[in-house]
Amino acid sequence: MAGRGKLIAVIGDEDTCTGFLLGGIGELNKNRKPNFLVIEKNTSVTEIEETFKGFLARDDIGIILINQFIAEMIRHAIDAHTQSIPAVLEIPSKEHPYDASKDSILRRAKGMFSAEDFR
User: Fold this and answer.
1) Top-confidence range, 30-34, 58-62, 110-114, 115-119
2) Which of 32, 68, 110, 114 could form a disulfide with 90 if both were Cys (CB 3.0 to 4.6 A apart)?
3) Which strand ranges, in their side-by-side order, compose the sheet holding 61-67?
4) Is the dihedral of CA 46, 52, 57, 60 positive or negative?
């Protein structure tokens, strides 16, 4: 990856992935593996978790975007990820609004600061 930036990976519903793909994030690595997973009704939790762990293991991915309602399905895997890169960001979807109380990354970040830090 010398001289190149890192990719954004997306795990999301069809609308979310389509929007990001139209924005130009779609890539295949040297093993022909895409940097996105479209979640459909018949997508298993095992497949979602395996894809997430696969994205964590790839050295060409710097950010993983995941719909929050999908993140809830694999919360244990997201909570187990403690490294800063790739960063895991939970995003809303069209049918499921963002709920900050469910975002484990945000809860972890809030724990790093006290009320005194913001005065």
Assistant:
1) 58-62
2) 68
3) 36-38, 7-12, 61-67, 87-91
4) positive
